[in-house]
Every structure is written in C-alpha cells, then in structure tokens.
Amino acid sequence: VNVGCVPKKVMWNTAVHAEFVHDHADYGFETPSVKFNWRTIKDKRDAYVRRLNDIYENNVKKAHIDIIRGYGKFTTDPEPTIEVEGKKYTAPHILIATGGRPAVPSDSEVPGASLGMTSDGFFDLEELPRRSVIVGAGYIAVEIAGILSTLGSKSSLLIRQDKVV
C-alpha cells in the first residue's frame, strides 16, 4: 500500500491521463496550455495512501486485532511464540507481515550504486527528473520507466542479457 501497488497505480493513472491529453488534438480537442505538476500529484497520492493506512488500521482495531510493531523472532518455546523487543507473544496462529526491503549493492560491488535509488525511492522524488535510467526488466521497472517517460522524463531502461538480440 505504501510504496507499491496503490501509489504505483496512482502514478500509472496519471500517465494514462497524460497520454489522453497528448491525443486530444486527434479527437478535435484544443488543449494548448495543459501543464503537469509533479508536486500536486505527489501530495495528493501521499495523502491518499495515508488515508488508506488510517482506514486499514481502524478496520483492524474494530476487529479487535492487536498490531505489534517491531522486530520479531520465533522462540524455541514449545508453543508458537514470537519475541518482539523483549516481550513474548504466544498464540495458536501467528502472522508476521514482514514487508520487503530491496537489496542494494555496495559501491565496491557495483561502482556508483550509491548514486541510485530503489523503486521505493521513486515515490520520494520531489520533482520529475529530466532524465532517468531504470535498471531491470521486471514489471515494476518497466512500469516506472513508462510512467516517467510518459510524464516527460527522458527515460532509458537497462536490461542485462547474456547474449545479443
């Protein structure tokens, strides 16, 4: 919800609108001075995600479910038990929603790696970059490249291959 599906779909829909505006003249619409403002969509997208977070958390509370935030680990206790920041929790069923964190190589592994950002960083961008390079060929990379390109960033998509095609 925070840096994945929901905000990406908002940005995808933003790009779809940009495509519609681009094609308006072909359908007889005159739109000579349409301007895109990255800050506006970023602020509205982030507010939407915060609102969804509040809705989800309220629904969990209404269902009398405890949310325990922190780093947890399973214990060797005979019953299913986890320990979070020194406190143990035992229950017949335990769900640990880990989320995900991207692996970022060091500069010694990939020279210049610290100059880049992960796909999570895309949602932190304060302005539309004039140029962008997206590394990867997964659906997230392709979608972000398409979004940035459609909104006006000169974008390149780098794909590793073992052979020339």
Automatic annotation (TrEMBL):
Family matches, as SUPFAM superfamilies: FAD/NAD(P)-binding domain
Cofactor: FAD
Gene Ontology MF term list: flavin adenine dinucleotide binding; glutathione-disulfide reductase (NADPH) activity
Subcellular location(s) per record: Cytoplasm; Mitochondrion
Keywords attached to this entry: Cytoplasm, Disulfide bond, Mitochondrion, NADP, Oxidoreductase, Redox-active center
Gene Ontology biological process terms from the UniProt entry: cell redox homeostasis; cellular response to oxidative stress; glutathione metabolic process
Gene3D superfamilies: FAD/NAD(P)-binding domain
UniProt cross-references to InterPro entries, sorted A to Z: FAD/NAD-bd_sf (IPR036188), FAD/NAD-binding_dom (IPR023753), GSHR/TRXR-like (IPR046952)
Domain FAD/NAD(P)-binding, first and last residues per copy: 1-164
Superkingdom assignment: Eukaryota
Catalytic activity: 2 glutathione + NADP(+) = glutathione disulfide + NADPH + H(+)
Pfam family, one: Pyr_redox_2
GO cellular component: cytosol; mitochondrion
Family: Belongs to the class-I pyridine nucleotide-disulfide oxidoreductase family.
Name of the featured protein: GSHR protein
